[in-house]
## 1
Amino acid sequence: MKKKTLSVLGFAAAASMVFTMTAMADGNADKPLVWWNRQPSNSSTGELDMDALTWNDQTYYVGFDANQGAELQGQMIADYIEANLDTIDRNGDGIIGYVLAIGDIGHNDSIARTRGARKALGTGVEVDGEIDPSPAETNVDGSASVVQDGEIGGLTVRELASHEMKNASGATWDAATAGNTIGTWTASFGDQIDVIVSNNDGMGMAMFNAWSQAEGVPTFGYDANSDAVAAIADGYAGTISQHADVQAYLTLRVLRNALDGVDPDTGIGTADEAGNVLSEEDYYYDEDTRSYYALNLAVTADNYEDFLDSTVVYAPVANQLSEDSSPVKNVWLDIYNASDNFLSSTYQPLLENYDDLLNLNVEYIGGDGQTESNITNRLGNPDQYDAYAINMVKTDNAASYTALLQ
């Protein structure tokens, strides 16, 4: 039996270090590599880093369809408002005021979610053909230039405030900052807040626990973390499942296939010998960017009971591989921020379940969410790993990792 480890792995016996033809023997630069959750890209423009995505012929990205998920979240919020027009305007001023917790202004997923909410609520302002994702900060009077007033069912919809939730140390998507910020906002204009929108559940739940649950204010998040899904029974309005079970499987499966030298589609779109296979409703693959994207699902009061345990492996890909055809291999995998609620409480437990099924001995490295060096300094001997799975702090910094694999 293999075992997981959180410490540096010892050198395997020489016989176990024989690579397959596709794993290559020319050095670390030729080993399988998957970028996951944070797609290599320019944090200012969103332009993909194709040098990183095509690092070698066994490099892939695994994430989810950010735009589809963002539009799904925005529509979920708009539908909720439409269904509750008679009661949602808490102070009767004719304005449905919402506040928005932004995760990371330089992250493509955060940008997409901000745009998705503003598009659905009619509050987006276009710049060069795209909705401006910039924080409005305070906009109680509706004068901010990056947003505009929208309208649903005859009522005005206004983004009262939005802010990037970054803590003093520089970590983004920070739940504690969101919890503090909702306190500041409610002290200034609390009775005008009718809806809370968050780029993720970590921040959403911090705001829900700090204020909105007691006030009965609907709060919408993203990620379908177990605590957020459970909170729907207590008034959390909804969240989006980014199919983390499919993402975690794909993160390790693309490495497994490369290490085994089999068709890259094995166990993904084509059933493997154990019967693992995904459907077109679960994911799609973009060949031009070598990227796998899981598809999102809305989680509301109507279906939340189906999502209560976010760490259960996805049944269609839950079958054990044989060590005869898929021998144990060593993988180095990092998580950009060990304190990130979604990655630590949902994604990593799923990875740990799948690494057993796929016969991968994964070393999990947790970063501080602030500096790339906190992670890269712990990849001191890449020779001892057969493959790598990388989750960057900043999407611009792919070269910080590939430089170690030369």
## 2
Amino acid sequence: MRSYDKNEAQSTEEFGKSLDEIAREGALKMLKDALEAEVEDFLGRGRYQRSEDYSGYRNGFGKKRKVVVGSGTLELQAPRVRDALVPFESDVLHKYQRQSDEVKSLIPELYLHGLATGDFELAMRGLLGDGASLSAASVSRLKEKWEDEYNSWRRRDLSSHKYVYMWCDGIYPKAGLSDDKLALLVVLGVNKNGIKEPLAIFEGYRESKESWGNVLHDLKERGLTDPKLFIGDGALGLWAAIGEVYPHADWQRCWCHKMRNVISYFPKRLKAEAAFYLKEMYNAATEEKAISLINDFAGRYAREYPLAVECLKKDQDVLLTFFCYPREHWASIKTTNPIESVFSSVRLRTNAARRIKSPRSALFLIFQIILRAQKRWRSINAPEMIQKVIDGVKFKDGVEVKEVKQRKTKREMVAA
């Protein structure tokens, strides 16, 4: 019989481990290596090496602690440094940190999916190992922290930033026992670098002018001046508030909402046909072509479907505002899709979490989900064009209008 050597026995033992065990061991090794590399970089020398420039020295390890990461619960000791001119602080593992950011983001997700506060301890232990338990009291404290974070965020100063495009929408979390139509009013902006940022998440009542006015006045008081373009659906309260608070800003009516509204006036047999003509307008290369298509649509359907034509024509001007902005940005500013896509998953989760007792609780949870989702948002196309919009450069049909310098006459040159 063939005998196994020590290495083969060890290999067989490794294969006997579960996938989770292998993942945890690999994560632990990588984390230890990263911490050691940080210390070497901080001291400017490796372990057992000497250096002429004294910058402190290693002093063993800190107390054992359990850290919960996506692959499970890891037990480790962080390296310590003594007598350094500047205290050593790890960027990989922060002081007193017990959970990774990914695990923290899991908590509001589970909560919105319907996990009760008292169930977290068992659920976390089952997902991430025995060291990952989270008591009901810990979850309650975490929710209080979310409230504090939200309050700090909504009061932050905006005066040092420029925002050009502003998407506005209201979402209705199915939370609380009241029949009142409470909404969360949301404003998403694009900064001068083309990055999307949530700027406001407020409680409001039925998207009224007063509610939207409170949101916009708050933004203005915190330093948000002169946004160029607001994009929104047909909520009259929103447009009335914009006209009052930011009277110089342009308006862009969401094409997706408008197309759905227009198509709703047609019988089923004609909906696809109407949608085809509306999409032609939406994709028109010039404002002149879009107006021509709108007029053709009106001539075709005004007699039998006057309400559909009226629905389209009444917002014609604000549907075509995008032609005055860079063509590269049209895909983003024609509709409220940037904000719709952000909140589609939020809507699903809050609709499922019927046990949330108050919209206030839903507000803090949604805020946490948005903050985590923000890291995955892509910037707007051609972000370099944003500065031109800020500088007031004129665009016609999406193309920059170049100023033509007139040549001087001979008489003007002689006079000069």
## 3
Amino acid sequence: MTSYRPAAVAGRFYPDNARELNAMIKRFLVDAESSIGESDCNPGATDSRSLRAIIAPHAGYIYSGEVAASAYARLTPVRKSIKRVVLVGPAHHVRVDGLAISRVGLFRTPLGDVPLDQNILDELERLPQVNVNEEAHAPEHSLEVHLPFLQSLLGEFRLVPILVGRSSPEEVCDVLSHLWNLPDTLIVISSDLSHFHSYDEARRIDTETCRLIESRQEEQLHGKQACGYLGIAGLLQIARENKLHVHLMDFRNSGDTSGDRDRVVGYASFVVTEPKGDTSKTPTAIPRFDAESRRILLDVAAFAINHELQNQRTSSVDIAAFPKHLQVERASFVTLRTDGKLRGCMGTLSSIQPLVADVAANAHAAAFRDPRFPPLNADEFSRLWIQVSVLSPATPIDFEDERDLLNRIRPGRDGLILRFGNRRGTLLPSVWENIPNRQDFLRALKQKAGLEEAFWSEEIQLDRYTTESFSTE
């Protein structure tokens, strides 16, 4: 029999009667839709490509239901395209180290059962900051209160429930990045704002918090501003990297909804969208690589190397013969190893040609033109391990000095490009496996660019990028 998590707060945070619950949610959504004006995130301007995530509160519906509905109403035009929801909220009741997922089969509410996406949870469980913690999920309201809204709007969907405990924005960002470009997927971040201040003080604090969220200044957020600040900050890192817009939909507190203004809790909702226009040309529109796409790119790399060994000439790539998403211009690196030792690594840092052509060219260069190694020979080919890393577009890092830069680097996630004058060097995110310390990583990057480890100048420029990497067995 499939295990399930029963509703823990039905009858307290929201009605436990399905008919009453449906009526309440419908009323919230109708009111929210009637207040939508002409903006970048109105239903007429929002499509399945532009709306990427929402942030919404998790208090009892009589306090925050209308605020949450102001974000959920924006899903109406795209609800048929959403098949999976990644729901991230803070753990309130049980101590959690890192991020906690659930592995039950279903989450149950008065509106029915929501199945969990077990394949995605399998992936997440392999990440070092993720663990299974059913004890934390059992009493938690921060995820549960969102489910009736999602059930009412989406009907059938699969859920990826994540609770954030003693963690960091970088760890949350890393988890979200693994899921960001999954097709038909919505990210929902659950958070209330300030707690138990006077009405006027809460308005002052929450106004500043909303400003920080809209301007994607996640480094200034902390737990006294929003209980789910780690989830918000992780999402905002991705939004800033991908130049996404964060729009405030509604902002109130319990003094506005319950009447008691002595000790109030703040609530706000936001939607995260891509800029209007042809989003198919933006980095976030490029899909995550499935198993077949990975196999194709690894085969392309292997063929480019073997063709040179067999024919002593470079192979040509028939671009049109490959799936369209592999014809998009992307930058890549190809890393080669034999017997566990590095045998070559070459790549590009900017998108200058179709991805399949870039992978073929870099595989050939890694095998035969890496100046650190002699050209690969035929005897080595059968022992060759190949890794393809596809790069995201690089974005500049703003920093005041070297210390500030070190605080902004995200270990395990960032690939870095250093530029100083005519010198340039890069280290892929995979290098963090061997150099886990920020300062040591930056020193190695300076050396790669031909600079002394202790060198620093205000003219140094740093860009960051991420990779999706996959390899032969």
## 4
Amino acid sequence: MATNVPQDIQEIWQMDLDHVIHPFQDFESFKETGSDIMSKSEGSHIFDAYGNKLLDGCAGLWCVNIGYGRKEMAAAIAEQVVDLAYYSTFGQLTTPPTAKFAAKLAEYAPGKLNHIMYSTGGSMANDTAIRMVHYYWNAKGQPNRKKIISRVDAYHGMTYLAAGLTGIEFDRIGFDQEEEIIHHVSVPNVYRPRDGMSPEELCDFLVQELDDKIQELGPENVAAFIAEPIMGAGGVLVPPEGYHKRTQDVCRKYGVLTISDEVVTGFGRLGHIFASEPVFGLTPDIITSAKGISSGYLPLAATIVTDEIYDTISAPREDGGIYSTGFTYAGHPVCCAAGLKNLEIIENEDICGHVLKVGPYFEEQLKTLMDLPLVGDVRGKCFMMCVENVGNKETKEILPPEARVGDRIAKHAQERGALVRPIGHLNVLSPPLIMTTDEIDFLVSTLRASIEATQDDLTREGIWKG
């Protein structure tokens, strides 16, 4: 930690070091440096404990869509706390915000997705979806349908079952995984396609591979296929044109349910409350959502299902039988009040329209970084973008892990006043949806300077020759 630090900040830093186990913790570096302390926020900016102003290119963690410091959000939360801070929604109990927010979600969800089961995070939303799918097939008299197909490099969460759905190999190191019911098919990576395929050839291959996998497992044994519209933590991978529509057609051919994981893509990040149908032509059986659902102001998630699924699971299994699953904080009134206010702000300020207008500018400006020797690819859509850094642009060779290229770029960016997220050799950008073109210009120019500084570091240290 830096010298001449105020005593209260030093104490917080030490308490964190001594007691907090962080998600995705690099224990080696943490024990050496401890945590950066973030203390205040406003608009698209975060302020650390030392008063440094940082443009947040991460929106916290894909989630602070409406931006920080919204007084109207604070007022809505405070009012609900006073009116009714909590009550259980088990059985035949509800609260006004719980019911109102479910009705709003049903308005925006595509097709006949009209029924919501609440939880408090994306992992729980996906776990809930799988449990619901299994219950559904049991109720349909097809109890053998247990297998779930996910994708390599998918990210669906970190609870035990969700971690099994996740297909990122690095996230599995040291952990056990559910392997009996979960199976993975190939990643739709257009930048690194199998055998040099064109996007069209890759799409054909991936669709046929899914068909083959269902046949291999036996259609009578396959319950669902789960996919993110754009893969997030796996590298912001936009699939080939028509991929989602065609994979859904395969699933429907065999009666397999489709789950669209919109934990990241939902609530405006791609310019729509839900991106599945308007952007990708996908009308899934289930949508899972979290993150932007409350813009990160309070923990909230939703598993949204069709009328047909609801009608099936709501039929009693036996006399006195109940649907015996759920969570203490499901439909929490204060969280749902935050969700309602979040949607109100998105609607009133036409934040989705802003994303559709400014998002292409963000894409265009980021792609100017392609002239840098270290940058192999810039990809994504609207306010969900990624820069892939490589050691060789022609071969797409990745620098060795010890180069820590993504971390270096992020560190240089933070020193220059912007936060970008490092994931291995990638840098991900998912800023608040209120970001202006001036802020985009600052973020992109800062990222350029940070990549150039990293190139200089790697060359000086003999790790990279350029």
